[in-house]
Amino acid sequence: MTLQERQMYVTIIKKLYGTSIYVDESQITDEVVGIVETILKEIRNCTKSLGIFISIVQGLADALQATGEALPKEIIEDMLKDQDLEWIRNMRKNFTEAFVESFVTTWINILTGAQQSTTCVNGAKLNWKSALAIALLGI
């Protein structure tokens, strides 16, 4: 795994947990990546059944367009409905680390801005916080 890929996961973990979990690039292992992917899959599964899913897709499309990374809404919707556990790794095959990082952090920003989807984010974070903290310690 490249340094840029490790930094991307660090950014995603910090976006999810803030300073409540310490993380740096040297701690990113396959186990940590697997846990992060699981957290994001749980969030995707929860939010796609919400009535606000289409507005989440639109918000993400608008935000990405503002950063110069425009994608059609259909592609964004397909990406958010993806059931693959290696979501980030698969996105990384088609996009740069910077795009994937921007996509995921923007998506989390949108989710945490809506009360319904905040429940999805917080539930997944809580379910995996201990496992992630232990994996980051290498235990």
TrEMBL record:
<protein>
    <submittedName>
        <fullName>Uncharacterized protein</fullName>
    </submittedName>
</protein>
